[in-house]
Structure formats: C-alpha cells, structure tokens
## 1
Amino acid sequence: MAEVPPTRPSLLVRMRDAHDQQAWADFVRLYAPAIYRFARRKGLQDADASDLTQEVLRSVAGSIGQLDFDPRQGMFRGWLFTLAHRRLCDWFDSRQRRERGSGDSAMVQLLYDQPERADQKHWEEDLEREAFARAAEKIRPIFSETTWQAFWQTAIEGKSGKDVAQELGLSVGAVYLAKSRVMVRLKAQVAELEP
C-alpha cells in the first residue's frame, strides 16, 4: 500500500487563490451536486437548479477571500447551506415579482427566517454521500481487489466478517484488518476533502 500523503492545506485556504484550479475543482465536485439536489428538492426545474447552483458557487468565489471561518461558530457546510438557502429565497422572490409585479412576499420572508430542519438534514446527508464517494474514488486504486472487497462487503453491504472471509478465501481477522486499513485511509481522505 502506498504511503499516506501528508495532509494538504485546508481547502478553504487554498480556494482563496483563484488560480488554484485543483482546489476549486475539488470544491465543485464535492458541493455542486448537493446544491443542485437541494434546489431540485425545493421544486426548481433542472435548468433553474443548475442556475442556482452556479449562483451559489459564484457567491462563494466572491466571498471566499473575506471569509474568516471560525469552526467554533459552526461548520463551513452550515454556512454554505445558509448561502444556498438565501439564494433560493432570492430566486423565489425574483420569480414572484416577475409574475405578480409585487415585492411583498410573506412566504419568501418565512423562507429567509426559518430554513427547514429537513432541508438541513438532507443537505448534510448529500454532502456526506458526496464526500464518501469522492474519497472512495480517490483511494480505491491503492488497494488490492481483495482488500477493497473485504472492506466494501463488510462496511457497505453489511455482510458478516465470517461470510466475507469464506467468500474471499481469507481469515476473519484478515477481513477485519483489510476493512480497518481502508477505513483509516477513507477517513483521512474525507478529512482532506472537507473544509
């Protein structure tokens, strides 16, 4: 197995450099799908959800240089959720003004004031899935097929160590060792990806 690379600088710090294309690519791969799904769950059509996603990403790009993020104040993903929620409210407000000619909107104000807990829960789940998928994609090539299958079948599919050991021709201890090795690397990769 390859050596674990040193932890790279925080993604948020790297994103302050507009020329760090890899940091921005990692950010977009991790967060854009969650923003898009959030918009779709709130009723936006595909094109509108894509536009909203781009608007949120543009807002992040515009504010990342001034963002002094303090983990004691909350997680970055919470800030991003709030930003996406505000942009969604702006979108509904703009749409309502176009359709009715009025800027007075109690519903939009309610959306501004109280993001739904269910939205936040879905948001967190989406981000966790994206982080897992991205991390698994990055680390998968460094493990043998047997090691990966031992991990996948026990950790993801929920099979017993005994059944997996029998299927793969390993000892039960070897199955759990393989699972542990992959989990350690996976957790480190997720931590690298998330701000």
Note: Residues 11-134 form one domain.
## 2
Amino acid sequence: MHSVLLLLAVAFIHLGIVIIPGPNFLVIVKNSLMYSRRAGIVTARGVAIGTVVYVIAGFLGFTALLSQSVVLFNVFKWIGVVYFIYVGAQLIRHARNTQTDVNFQSADTPSFTDQQALRSGLLTMLSNVKSAFYFMFLFTTFLPTNVNIELKVIIIMLIPAISLTWYSVLALTFSNHRVRHIYQRIERWMNMIFGAVWIVLGLKLMSTTQE
C-alpha cells in the first residue's frame, strides 16, 4: 500500500511539472504546427527518451554530482544556453524568409524526418539543466533512500510514460488541421514569437545558478 501511494504521489508531482509550459512544451508545439502530427509525436518520444536518461541519472546520483561540481554544471548549462539561443535564432531567420502567401506543407510532406524530430525532442530535454535539478530534488528529498529495485524500475517507466502521454496529447491538439490552418495565416509572426521565447529561455538558463 505504501508503494502504491508513493507511485501515485510521484505521478502527481511529475504531471504537475510537465503541464507547466517550458522548453519541452515549446518544441512539441513548434514541430506539430510547423511540420505534422507525426513530427510532434516523434518529438514527444524524444522528450520521453531524454526523461529516461535523467531518471536513471537521478537514481545513479549523477544529478546530485551535477549540483556539486561547478565545472560540470557550467558545461551543461552553457550547452543548453547555446542550443536554446541557436533554435531561437533559426526560427527568427526562418520567419524573416517566410512569404505570407506561401501555403504550409501538408502533413505528408517529408520536410522534417523522424530522426530530426526525435533529436529535437531529446536535445531539448537534455539541454535543460533545470530538469536535472528537478529530478535531483525528486530523488533526494521525496523518495526514501531504501526504495527497492522493483519500485525503481516502475518509476523509471512511469515518469517517461507520463511525459510521453502528455506531450503526445499536445502534439495531437496542435497538429489539428484547423489549428494548423490558423497557424498558416500568422506563420511569420508565430515563428518570430517562438524564436524570441527560445532566446529568452536561453538567457534565463544563463542566469541559472547551482542550488
């Protein structure tokens, strides 16, 4: 019974975290609107894979090490900063080159491969050093130290499953034909906004310090 309550608590906490808009939310929405439903769902898979990496790293103590090592922390932080700002700059450049009368490509157009979608989701998840701190908090202050291996395996599967489910719902929502049709009409301005938000996220990450 205690294990069931613990799993429910973990699920509730993680769901509360993933529904808050952030880099993962942004990359799912961007790829679903700009490319296709499949691109959004595959991007969600990439985020889920990145979540698996961080969950395992949390159990192995890597996230705790990250909070204690200034060098390691700064390496991860600046990788994230560069990646976020790069994505933002690319979106702004794309927006400036977009013609307002160009029809967006259909969902069947192979303009964005599965590999690119998966990579964008994975890199977005792994580049956010704040994710590491979240899992460090979860595993060091919430989960008891005597968690058995069976429960750890369930948690390793549960947390990414919640992420995948939520972000897949987002992909299905924002890849809806009507939603994408609205996006088509304001594509240039939406991409400018997306790009600006990515850059702001990068600047915000730049100011992140070790707890």
Note: The two ends are 34 Å apart (CA to CA).
